[in-house]
Fold each of these.
Amino acid sequence: MTQHEGTNPQAAGLHGSLKSYTLGFLFSIVLTIIPVAIVMNGWLEGAASSIVLMMAAVLQLVVQLIFFMHLREEKKPRYNLVTLILGLVILLVIVLGSMWIMLYNTVAT
Amino acid sequence: MWEKVKSFASDFFVTGDPLIYGADVSIVLAAISIVFVMTYFKKWGWLWREWLTSVDHKKIGIMYILASFLMLFRGGVDALLMRAQLVVPEMEFLTPDHYNQIFTTHGVIMILFMAMPFMFGLFNVIVPLQIGARDVAFPFLNALSFWLFFSGAMLFNLSFVIGGSPDAGWLAYPPYSGLMHNPGPGQDFYIWGIQISGIGSLMTGINFIVTILKMRAPGMKLMKMPMFPWSVLSSCIAIIFSFPILTATLALLFLDRYAGAHFFTLDGGGNPMMYINLIWMWGHPEVYIIVLPAFGIFSEIVSTFAKKKLFGYKSMVYAMMIISILSFLVWAHHFFTMGSGADVNAFFALTTMLIAIPTGAKVFNWLFTMFRGKITFETPMLWTIGFIPCFVTGGMTGVLLSVAPADFQFHNSYFLVAHFHHVIIGGVVFGYFAGLYYWWPKLFGFKLHERIGKWAFWLWNIGFYLCFMPQYALGLMGMTRRVATYGWDKGWWEMNLVSTIGAGLMGIAFVVQVWQIVYSVKHLRKDRTGDPWNGRTLEWSIPSPAPLYNFATLPQVTAQDEWWEEKLLRDNGQSSSVPPALEPIHMPKNSGIPFVMSMFWFAAGFGFVFQWLWLIIAGLVGVAVCMLVHSFNYDNDYYISVDEIKRTEAAIREVPN
């Protein structure tokens, strides 16, 4: 509580401006509309559509991190960055591990 | 009209089982008597002001522990019903359907609604005190976490009198939990009870990571922090990475059931095994989430009662962090028999065995801490000593299970049932009991009665070994888990009889513990020192129970066992500490929003269970309105004046003898 006062976000003025929030909002909307349009109108199929959808998802993640999670504005110690890297490692473990387990599944395939 | 009401009621309420009617009657009687007592003593305002709206971490912690004791009772009754059914072959006490419901609710309640809140309760009451903070980082969020857990737990528990209990096992494997095989509302109670309380768990994880990283007292470097906050940190790291997996998995299951999706169905391109794969990605870290804080508790207790600094502090820290990360790499050992081939099984068998290494390091650390210490055997230490052999042997049967080829024999047998009860009761439950006995004086200002506590300890331990050791043998003899009954020709009944006697002893032990609490309250012997165990860490440097603001002046930390070092200095007459001047203390204001918002979540969850769209919309709108109201509320803090601090401190230190 009292320890908090020095790091009060309003007082320190650390976080984004109206401009950065608007920009982030626009980016995230556009990155949502693209996949929806592709799927609804059937513009792309098969591997091409998967790749575009996944790229939109990854870019969306980056936009969220930079504009709303303020990843770049962090001072030391870099807890956010360390957590993010750990999160990515675990994400990779989940995705690759699941694919490994399910693709080698002698019952399912 | 009357016919309509009757047909609605016969679907809505669970009917036809005398046990359930008995429960109905006792629920109504208990509710009436609570309302009567509260009204008679005019306590409603007090309840609202002091508890329901409180954002004080100590009160929230006490509410968590109280709720978990209620859930321990419910889960324990489930366990005793199951053991009663299995006591002799061809028993006709529970029908197979009812038996399925009971083992499902037993598992869910014991892990998610008993172990988790007990753990969060101990986090809440102790972590801020140990790191010298005045509250957690986000007190409002903390209250919201508790009430979300509470409404999730209530929603889940409602299922056995309204709508019907879930019966697909504690992890609700499809296809049995899918709509085709399980059309009733039971599985939806399961999904929404866990989802709503899961939001709370995730927020608690975030809250305590921030609290530990940002709110330590001046001078307390991470490597000078007591071991319990370290264990909380490692457990919370696992929480924030694993609970989203649970939420996503159950959301997909919900879409299957509610919106006709085909993620986990056998048709339409779905695959039920994907569910099993996903749920264990949460499920395995979950067991480490609940056991890591127990390791932290044992570390504190061993060091206090051996009167020695903890042996191998750094190795303990690294071991916990490694366990927290490794727990994400072992999940497939829960389904070796799924048929993923030798490569996959070999990898996950090896990672599982690796976890035994840091765990073994911790056991040696505790043993070396005790080595040549002046050990005293009060109840917290007894539980610790009871834990070590129990957890070591339980862990070893785990290593046996991790041998993939052998697991094809053990899988889903009573050997497995015995193993996980062995480590969860022997590790988690014993650990939290130890912690509760250890910190009880800090919570309430008096010790629990030692002699009755020793009775409870021995009853628990003897009951535990009687109950679960025969189950290892039963598993090897071919008894599979979740069988509702068995024949005389199997040769299992002697062992099952012994096991039921053991379960009964543990039931008695629980009653003895409740008696111990009642007895200790009745023959209250107030502890005026604030430090009844001759403790080593900061929570013992303040009066018990701790005042609202915890520390009148924030401590300056220089050593690992700060309070112990301070006491040594005082004994030598070297204590330099001139208490720093008091300053007004910044505190968070109470808020009713967490409670109200959780009730809206409860309503929305209930609507989802019965697919009543109007209630879903009303509930979710209520949640949104609560969020908006809180977002625009800037009047959420105040200062405690220096005068008031002085008055409080004087009142605490005054001895009225």
Amino acid sequence: MSTLASQSQHTIQIEKLRKSYSEQTAGDVHYIIKDVNLVIKGGEFFVLLGPSGCGKSTLLNMIAGFVSKSGGNLKVDNVEIDRPGRDRAVVFQQADSSLFPWLTVRENVEFGLRMKKTPKAERRKISDRYIGLVGLNGHEEKFPKELSGGMKQRVQLARVLANDPAILLMDEPFGALDAMTRRTMQKELVNIWRETHKTVIFVTHDIQEALLLGERIGIMSVGPSSNITDIYDNALPFPRDVASPEFYSLYNQIQGHFEE
Amino acid sequence: MKWVEKKWVSVSLLWIAALGIWQLGAAIYGPDVIPGPWATLKGGRELVSDGTLMQYIGISFYRVLVGWVLGSLLAVPVGLIIGKVNIIRIFAEPFLNFIRFIPPIAFITLFLVWFGIGEQSKIALIMYATFFIVVLNTLTGVMSVEEDKIRSARSMGASEWQILLHVIVPATTPYIFTGIRLAMGTSYMAIIGAEMIASNEGVGYLIWNSRLFFRTDWIFVGLFCLGFMGFFTDRLFGWFGRRVLYRYGVVSVAARKR
């Protein structure tokens, strides 16, 4: 019984998952991703690493429930996923296209709670907490256009955390940030993850970012019919040191995949 | 020459220049062809003193306002539905793009036959002039809502109805606003046409009827009234947009540089 209980901690199970945008089901079908098998444990920080166009965003969007599957199984806690849900929050790459510019920082963070009709006082308490957690105190009444790129991504993070999702799906969220801001955001994400115990699936094409963040790193092959070819365990302690020999050797190993 | 760049200086200079050219034209061609500023003012005083001008402005304004408001109220939900529901859009779009090229004036006779010679036909004409512009703008707005916004709302637990209300409508607001504002212009054009042909009051009637007495100064008065009516309602609406709809990103063409 105890093993079952630990398994049902928001475990994501993916079996022979496929996606194709063509109508035909037999013969020479063009698959974006084909026969992906993956199990992600609850509370894990999993990184999907691969070059552009390998289908990692497609896989993430399928877990989010935005994109329907063409075959295989995709379950969270043994329940098949066929639509977006409050349990799976998404942090998008472009904050400008996903934040609501007509709402203030606080109103953006409270959006999900308002949809759920949470009473105002409680909403305020929760938004205060997460705005504080992402370090946006004092910016509550600002509109997104008054914020920098990094701050906008903080708003996105606070906005999804306020809904208390089990799983955080992050699609290259720091890809558009400058190097210094990115580094700060990576550190803070690790802290937030350790504080909130969410399951995180983080998509990136940056090997260093993958190594800084992930407990496990799944390497995706170049499409079409792409797949997770290898999974690396990364047990280096946090905060991770880019200059350490262990980091360097792991970096080289992973880079080897993309050089052939 | 810094003083020329001051706004009140340049604006007054412009007005003085315009009045000068106007007066010059009047002096060259005679008051029957181009009534000068003074003659126009006198004609205007005449029309104000017996109360007709204010009454005409009032009735034209009333027609535009009622038709424009009703037309917009009808058009916004229609635009939202057409934009949101693919199947409806596939059928509606060619139809919309066909009918929007038919100017309101072309419908005057038909509207008189359908709605009678009273106020209804004029208001219906303004509604027609408003409707398609607002529908098309709303539709464009709905189509350009970023997918990420809808997706993020959905994964935060918003229902389809909540997405419409809390994401699509606010994201579309600047488009709706622009559509309604443009529609005001076509509404004035339509009402003047209608009043010329089928009315015995209103600014359009004044302009058209003045030809019988060869009162070109009255025509000038009518033109000025139209310009000012349009100008002030547009400014008022733009001001309202900037004030009330600021957070939705409604910007005005007349917005000053900061």
